[in-house]
Amino acid sequence: MTRRRFLPEYVSSFKDRHGKERLRFRRKGFAGGYFKSALGTEDFRTEYRAFMDASETVGVAVDRAIPGTIADLVARYFATPTRLGPTVITQSKVRSIVGRFSEEYGKLPVAWVGFQHIDAIVTAKTQRKMVHTARGLRPIGGPVAAGKLRKELVRLFNFAVKLRMIPTNPVLLADHVKLLVEQRSAGYHTWTEDEIDQYRARHQLGTNARLALELLLWTGQRRSDAIRMGRQHIVDGRIKVVQDKTGKVLWIAVAPQLLEAIVAMPAAKNHLCFLINEQGRLFTRAGFGNWFRDKCDAPGSLNARRTDCARRSCAAWPNSTKATKPGRRCPVTGKTRRSLAIRKRPISAAWQTTQLASSRAGRCRTVQRG
User: Fold this and answer.
1) Phi, psi angle pair for 363, to nearest 5°
2) The model scores a pTM over 0.90
3) Which of 87, 170, 289, 338 is deepest in the core (most CB within 10 A)?
């Protein structure tokens, strides 16, 4: 009986098709390979130490999508981020919607999907249900979510047609999401003047909560833009805003109420933005939304979601004929509001000098503008 030869750990031997003995190194998480030197030689020991001391390890293999399935289609769709949208925020939203669809139906072949399946999936999405999250119960689904899902599925399966995975887009043959009369909503409640005064009474000048309200109220910008505004952006009585979502450059006149809230804030060191969180850092988009929601829900404040910037703009600038927010499209004409946002017109004489009482210094301070 032939005695089995000793081999180092993780080394195995076999004979190739020519009858020659080959030695192979295989260890989980390490790069493998074949030895070029004979067993027992110094060159073999050098190669073995090189395999054992390899700094770059190989990751454990993961399950790959089966070609032709929805998971395979989604993986190809996500390969080019710009295909999902022009901004990172839009891309993350689209990735979330399509990703959840892939998690549930990823194993199905794309060729098997018909319009009747899309109708069933979208109809199931219209049913609103509550799920537990870190911030409590959160609604999932609903008619609006179903409409967004159908919209993204149209783009996804159009991409499948380009890849020649299917001849036609089944989503285009599916029905649109239709709302019943009792399902239609008037949208978020718009704050009234009394509610705005109630919030101001709860959050005095000199606080982040008050400054956040005035920024949103008098600029009409999204939260992603409000958290990036700072003193360095104010030039000649206007605040410069480069919208994060659209990339548009806006020059918005600084209202006296907003200027008063800015001056009342204590000087922030090493920060260029107006709004700073409790840890002394800049807000994130989601963090600011959650923080402002808590301020609105605070005792003595109010539980509301939307401030009416259009009403404020018409009252502050009577020459404006469009009741839309700066930089937004008018729902009637479809044109972007430019009279206040983009064109840098001269500011009236009343705006040249604004005198504000500084409670901290105990004296009157004059703010020169323009």
Assistant:
1) -140, 170
2) no
3) 170
Cα–Cα dist 253/350, whole Å: 13
Q: Residue 30 gets which letter from DSSP?
A: S
Cα–Cα distance for residue pair 221/250, rounded to 1 Å: 10
Q: Which residues contact 188 (CB under 8 A, 6 or more apart)?
A: 304, 305, 306
Helix (H, G, I), strand (E, B) or coil at 336: strand
Alpha-carbon torsion 141, 145, 147, 152, what sign?
A: negative
Q: Please give the C-alpha separations between residue 108 and each of 65, 97, 265, in angstroms, as whole numbers.
A: 11, 17, 57
Comparing CA positions, the residue from 247, 263, 231 lying closest to residue 239 is: 231
From the CB of residue 18, how many other CB atoms can be counted at a distance below 10 Å? 6
Torsion of CA 77, 79, 81, 83, to 10 degrees: -40
Give the CA radius of gyration of the chain: 31
Distance CA 338, CA 332 (A): 15
Q: What is the pLDDT of residues 38-50, one digit of tens each?
A: 888 888 988 888 8
Rounded (5°) CA angle 238-240-245: 140
> Which stretches of the chain drop beneath a pLDDT of 50?
1, 57-62, 316-323, 330-335, 337-343, 346-370
In what helix (H) or strand (E) does residue 353 lie, and over which residues does it extend? strand 353-358
